[in-house]
Amino acid sequence: MADQPTGVSSLKTLDNALAVLSEFTLETPTWGLRELSKKMDMNHTVLHRILRTFEGWGYLRQNPLTKEYELGLKILEFTSVVKQRMKLSEFVVPVMHELVEEVGETAFLTLKDGDKGVTVEIVECDRPIKFNVSIGTRTPLHAGASCKVILAFMDEEEKPGVLPESLQAFTARTVTEREALIRDLEEVRETGVCVTKGEFSDAVCGIAVPLFNARRKVVGSLTIAGPGYRMPDEETPELAEKVMNKGRIIQQYIDRFGSFY
Amino acid sequence: MADQPTGVSSLKTLDNALAVLSEFTLETPTWGLRELSKKMDMNHTVLHRILRTFEGWGYLRQNPLTKEYELGLKILEFTSVVKQRMKLSEFVVPVMHELVEEVGETAFLTLKDGDKGVTVEIVECDRPIKFNVSIGTRTPLHAGASCKVILAFMDEEEKPGVLPESLQAFTARTVTEREALIRDLEEVRETGVCVTKGEFSDAVCGIAVPLFNARRKVVGSLTIAGPGYRMPDEETPELAEKVMNKGRIIQQYIDRFGSFY
DNA sequence: CATATTGGTTCTTATATCGAACCACCGGTT
DNA sequence: AACCGGTGGTTCGATATAAGAACCAATATG
């Protein structure tokens, strides 16, 4: 998390507050008042007021024993709203379940949000070893099948804005060469599907197809991912075909009901 | 949504902002600037700044076509944090799945949050007709099995604070008589399980057992719910037994790993 | 083409936030 | 017990900051 504020036309108090909220992450889900005030280099009185206000609304709550603050249950209220807005559960998830049945690997749906891909829905497969990811995860667009396929189908003029100067390497196999990446993307555009091996996480193979809105702009992707040894090269074409089929079904749904502007 | 602020030691700007955010509900997920400013009786300039600040952080986003605002994907980031904090996915959900297999109805986990019960996890059954509920739903504690069972096991001194003056009726069968409710709760405490029929939603039967934290305070409940005709009186004892069994397993887990302070 | 919307911006005033200094409490040291 | 360093929490005056009337620009409607 720990995003940057926009800086333009924003409320300082609210900016501060949201910066505070963003510190409650998977890595550091709880904070003491003083502890967080040091971390953020923020006057502890100011921080205290912010925490209390959030607490009053249920966004945060204080552990009565340790006095530490953590995210409150109020947050959960919004997830239903977001998801229903994306119309995910009623139609897309069942299709994802079918896909998981067919391929035996975890499937997930990614949406483009600015210069990041966000995992918005996951259907896990029923095996002890499987690809693991959390809802809400944000990753740059240049690595991993789910994100690369989005990048591949973006308008040329939009790309410069979302690609950073230097492409961060997540594994030894992440494509960090601009030229190489562009060649990759061209191939993805030709075949209509993106297959990656260990680019974002070691030993993970991903197969992804793009999803478009009514104006033919990429808005996200449908992906399956699993351990590389279960997805050898000779089987990927067959798997890719299955992902593309389900992708087409979801696409038809989007076209008809116009979600994901 | 649309909760009240606490009023004590809070930041007005942030309070305003959170009040704004709370207007983005399942019923009204999108708002135009002027439209919302009227609804909230708030100067549109002020509102505009709030919306823009939220937008800058990804909590809201503006539909570029309609110019309306809606919740952004940033929200999803937090859900993983909350859930992992509750340690739900890794252990509790599998147990809930087992329960759903056994009884063939939807199961859900409710946590007490102040004077409300919050649905934090749902495992739906695999039937066309089933009980439906959204994650994050907040309901008063006096109606429905999932909430009544929490109320039943709360400390006596804590109850006055959470029970409103008049008990809202959700259906014709909601218990709104204080005396009757107290008798119900006593029975629940004796049997250790709460069975309700159509108290919160018409024709819905719910069976719930309480969950306690390390200090033996009720923190939530495990519930199954389905259409009344599939859960006739003669079968409820058997179903209740199954819910209690799974409840015990989850309870053991909580006792060992101490989630849900 | 006038009117009434909409979203968005500017600039002044007054108000709401900041933050130093302040408790009260707790646990360990001396 | 007195002291220290560490919590979380509170108070109140100075001033930075957000409120809001008046203002665009654009679109839609008659």
Automatic annotation (TrEMBL), chains A, B:
<dbReference type="GO" id="GO:0003677">
    <property type="term" value="F:DNA binding"/>
</dbReference>
<dbReference type="GO" id="GO:0003700">
    <property type="term" value="F:DNA-binding transcription factor activity"/>
</dbReference>
<dbReference type="InterPro" id="IPR050707">
    <property type="entry name" value="HTH_MetabolicPath_Reg"/>
</dbReference>
<dbReference type="InterPro" id="IPR036388">
    <property type="entry name" value="WH-like_DNA-bd_sf"/>
</dbReference>
<dbReference type="Pfam" id="PF09339">
    <property type="entry name" value="HTH_IclR"/>
</dbReference>
<keyword id="KW-0804">Transcription</keyword>
<protein>
    <submittedName>
        <fullName>Transcriptional regulator, IclR family</fullName>
    </submittedName>
</protein>
<feature type="domain" description="HTH iclR-type">
    <location>
        <begin position="11"/>
        <end position="73"/>
    </location>
</feature>
<dbReference type="InterPro" id="IPR036390">
    <property type="entry name" value="WH_DNA-bd_sf"/>
</dbReference>
<dbReference type="GO" id="GO:0045892">
    <property type="term" value="P:negative regulation of DNA-templated transcription"/>
</dbReference>
<keyword id="KW-0238">DNA-binding</keyword>
<dbReference type="InterPro" id="IPR005471">
    <property type="entry name" value="Tscrpt_reg_IclR_N"/>
</dbReference>
<dbReference type="InterPro" id="IPR029016">
    <property type="entry name" value="GAF-like_dom_sf"/>
</dbReference>
<dbReference type="InterPro" id="IPR014757">
    <property type="entry name" value="Tscrpt_reg_IclR_C"/>
</dbReference>
<dbReference type="Pfam" id="PF01614">
    <property type="entry name" value="IclR_C"/>
</dbReference>
<keyword id="KW-0805">Transcription regulation</keyword>
<feature type="domain" description="IclR-ED">
    <location>
        <begin position="74"/>
        <end position="256"/>
    </location>
</feature>
